[in-house]
Amino acid sequence: PCKKVSPVFEELARTSSCDFFKVDVDPHTALCDRFRIDSIPTVVVLKNSKEIERIYAQEKSLRALVSKYSN
Questions:
Q1: CA distance between the termini of the chain
Q2: Neighbours of 19 (CB within 10 A)
Q3: pTM of model > 0.85
Q4: Rounded distance, CA 55 to CA 29, Å?
Q5: Can you give the pLDDT of all 71 residues of the chain as single tens digits?
Q6: Is the dihedral of CA 16, 19, 24, 29 positive or negative?
Q7: Can you list the pairs that 12-20 forms with residues at least 24 positions away whose Cβ atoms lie under 8 Å?
């Protein structure tokens, strides 16, 4: 799933007004625990350091989420 969504993620990161960050879950287990990542790919939307939305990303849902929060 991550490899399938990755090109869409990269495209949206270049073309939208949102900031994107990829995290390799294996060496960053504390971060995964903090954000309760139990399935990948997971996209967490933060505003003022608080989670406002999350999805278990597929291409359509990722595009819709970015469209919702882009300026």
A1: 27
A2: 7
A3: no
A4: 19
A5: 888 899 999 999 999 999 999 999 999 999 999 999 999 999 999 999 999 999 998 999 999 999 999 87
A6: negative
A7: 12/62, 12/63, 12/66, 16/66, 16/70, 17/70, 17/71, 18/66, 18/69, 18/70
